[in-house]
Amino acid sequence: MIRTEALTRHFTRGKKTVEAVRGLDLEIHQGELVAFLGPNGAGKSTTLRMLTTLIPPTSGTAEVAGHDVVRSRAAVRRSIGYVGQGNAAAFVQRGRDELMSQARAHGIPRAAAKARIDELLSAFDLQEYADRPVQTLSGGQRRRLDIAIGLLNHPEVLFLDEPSTGLDPQNRANLQEQIRRLHEDGTTIVLTTHYLEEADALAGRVIVVDHGVVIADDTASRLKEKLGDLVLLGFGTEADATTAATRAESVLSGPTLIERAGTQVSIRTPRGADSAPALAIDLAAHGTPAIRMEVHSPTLDDVFLDLTGRSLRESADSTTQTEGAAA
Ligand SMILES: Nc1ncnc2c1ncn2[C@@H]1O[C@H](COP(=O)(O)OP(=O)(O)OP(=O)(O)O)[C@@H](O)[C@H]1O
């Protein structure tokens, strides 16, 4: 449903060139729900903007729903829904009128458009606000209106760029429900998000990009499994901790990272929850008993931190870069 080959986009400002997306090769099949993750400035929005025909690639190719994003822009646009980071609705219009203008722009006949609009207003709990000017709506209400606009044409492929930003937990849960339903109906969905729990809960596949290239592409559970559990062991003395760290190296199998700091040993190891009890018994039998043991399963944020050196929580908290007009 989405295929890119060496997809690249540079922006030039004065003498400076930013390589926002660098040779992306992607293949996303019909019906997949993919979370596209990465730190601020990783190239996520730029990729989405190329796939939705808003900006052309500098080089490389991309096809969406079988149409080339440069040669067949209109056909791509007919097949997709796009909810960008900015508000799509004109501020002075009433929500319902905005939906109608956008539906008509898609070529949907008036009666069908009216029915679809009622359906979407109800799905996103917007009936009460539909007849107010958009500028009087709260950020969350506007966000829901944006999403409704993106769904007007029953898109085959839906691109959601941080759809839940600005929504309260209740509306976020409602949005997730809508996304799940669309996915069940067979819509291919690509979403960027700074909420790892959201990616974890929704997406069958997680693609992590950084500096414009893909650095991981797998299911959330396999990514977590690859990283391994964190086993923390506390000892009575630093000498015990040092001996235990060396012993753990020979006892544990698989790619294992062991660090000692003071009287604590931290171990990152695959299936650590399973191996920790045996390790504790072994250490006690060798005269260095642990006085404390904790096992933490990895979160997607741990995976993200490991891959990018940054926590996505950190990047969610930092100021999001605003995009100017395409250079
Ligand atoms: N119109 C533009 N002109 C110049 N540079 C741009 C433009 N749009 C994006 N960039 C730069 O390209 C890089 C990738 O930006 P992009 O918006 O794709 O990142 P992102 O992964 O979506 O980040 P965020 O999580 O902050 O939304 C950044 O360095 C950004 O500053």
TrEMBL record:
Which ranges form a coiled coil?
A: none
Spell out the InterPro entries in the cross-references: AAA+_ATPase, ABC_transporter-like_ATP-bd, ABC_transporter-like_CS, ABC_transporter_ATP-binding, P-loop_NTPase
Q: Name one Pfam family in it.
A: ABC_tran
Predominant place of localization: membrane
- Superkingdom field: Bacteria
Protein name (Swiss-Prot/TrEMBL): ATP-binding cassette domain-containing protein
User: What PANTHER family does this protein's entry cite?
Assistant: ABC TRANSPORTER ATP-BINDING PROTEIN, DOXORUBICIN RESISTANCE ATP-BINDING PROTEIN DRRA
Report if keyword Nucleotide-binding is assigned: yes
* SMART domains with a match to the protein in the record: AAA (SM00382)
Spell out the subcellular localization from the entry.
Cell membrane
Keyword hit for Nucleotide-binding: yes
Q: Which UniProt keywords apply?
A: Antibiotic resistance, ATP-binding, Nucleotide-binding, Transport
Membrane topology category: Peripheral membrane protein
Domain named ABC transporter is located at 2-236
Example GO CC term: the record gives: plasma membrane
GO biological process terms on file: response to antibiotic
Q: Which GO terms describe its molecular function?
A: ATP binding; ATP hydrolysis activity
